[in-house]
Amino acid sequence: MSATSHGTDGTDGTDGIIDPRVVVTGVTLDSRAIRPGDLYAALPGANVHGARFVAAAVGLGAVAVLTDPAGAALLAPNEITVPVLVVPEPRAALGDVAALVYGGASQAMTMLGITGTNGKTTTAYLLDSALRALGRVTGLIGTVETRIGEDRIKSVRTTPESADLHALFAVMLESGVDTCTMEVSSHALTLHRVDGVRYDVIAFTNLSQDHLDFHGSMEDYYLAKASLFTPARAVRAVVCVDDEWGQRLARESGVPVVSISSRQDVLADWQIQTCGSDESAFELVGEGRRLSLRSALPGDFNRVNTGVAALVLLAAGYPIDAIEAALAADPHVPGRMERVLVERVSSITATDQSRMPLAVVDFAHTPGAVAAALKALRHETSGSLIVVLGAGGDRDPGKRAAMGAAAAAHADLVVVTDDNPRSEDPASIRAAVLEGAVAQERLARRPTGRLREIGDRAAAIREAVAQASVGDTVVVLGKGHESGQEIAGVVHPFDDRTELRAALTEHTASMERAAAMERAAAKEHPVAKENPVGQAATDANRDEAR
Length: 546
Hints:
Blueprint: E1 2-5, E2 17-23, E3 26-28, E4 38-42, H1 54-59, E5 64-67, H2 69-74, E6 84-86, H3 90-101, E7 110-115, H4 120-133, E8 138-141, E9 145-148, E10 151-154, H5 162-174, E11 179-183, H6 186-190, E12 199-204, H7 212-215, H8 218-226, E13 234-240, H9 244-252, E14 257-261, E15 270-275, E16 278-286, E17 289-294, H10 300-315, H11 320-326, E18 338-339, E19 344-345, E20 348-349, E21 358-362, H12 367-378, E22 385-389, H13 400-410, E23 413-416, H14 426-443, E24 451-453, H15 457-466, E25 473-477, E26 484-487, E27 490-493, H16 496-524, H17 532-545
Parallel strand pairs: 3-4, 4-5, 5-6, 7-11, 7-12, 8-11, 12-13, 13-14, 14-15, 21-25, 22-23, 22-25, 23-24
Antiparallel strand pairs: 1-2, 8-9, 9-10, 15-16, 16-17, 18-21, 19-20, 26-27
């Protein structure tokens, strides 16, 4: 891409001239990451304007600058030796600029997008797994990781900045990727991170309270999601209409919609129908056709996620029989209804898991997701359902009490702990969660003895496991796949799966020691269990002998 040269007088740049001698080979927002040939996007930040780092960027090899009038005003004309492109909203222009610089790589691939409050990650993994089974070379961009074929990179955010996103598409294309599945967050849509991308199929899972610290209201949150369903951004759509937001989106979408519902009282193009006593098996019926599917993960919501994935594949042109076979495999979604196993403790082996409580980690961090996860696990639990959860700091505070209420409504024991407090006081966050849980207990006329507060998350997990027996379920909610806990601006290593496995190992080893002591005692005093009176007499005789 050749650069357009503009002055630094705050003009909009429409009168600039093309300088064919300047060739732009990359785009970045980070002045520290500049490579020779890059265009540096000097955007306004939360604390400082990126224009203040233009000189450093040019020193590292930036050949052009994109900024706004405020940024242009900060530049010293005699220090800037490269073209400066000035536009009123550079972030809104950046996606299209990056797409142009990187050759429109996304246009050469099949692009599939998933948006919604809950279910984005699971549905994306279901799609990626199925696409691989269908013989595609896939790319995956989401909350947990980025996949380029067989290569995996840990994700920093759900959806990368537009400059990074289009560069990633170019790398995918060079690596032979032909189909890319993306989670598309509401933040990404509002902040123009997916500008310059047009999806072949876009899907909507659901909408419930979350991110209101950013969006301000559910209406604005919905409008951010709905902005994806326009001809400029998508060709066709799959929309779950189980909630009122999905029903509204199906009516207001600017692109053709195929709807899906698990509710028999909601009119939809496709209906999910369960199959007898096998809760994982279901049929998707609609448009005169029928798909026989199986959900690899528990819960009604995972049947919906699987159904949505199936319809996305159908909309992408795959035949029904191939879709049924491709979705049969377990995609292993990190931190989403992920069972934690203990491979070996003393004489306990992987085949002895039935002797332990069911242990699960899930990313649920909204009231709706907490309720859905616990309802799903209730079906798999013959004993007590024990939940460990907290709420994140510096995020929507309005959902904290509702999360506590959802936990108390569906679990037998609730251990409230810290999640990622970030810059907030952890005790205040826990108090808000407990407030909702206590209110729910009073509403149900139950004593609050089923609620516990343990700030230390590792200790809370150990306590939950210590309270569990065979037939019980321990589920740790909120952090899922995350490998760190942010407290007062410092990220400490912490993985719920690791901590839960350690607690299970410790608890099981303790049980093994107790069982060994019982066996030893029984061997030493074989009459004890059959004849307590005779045992007492023997003990008395032994005392006399001493």
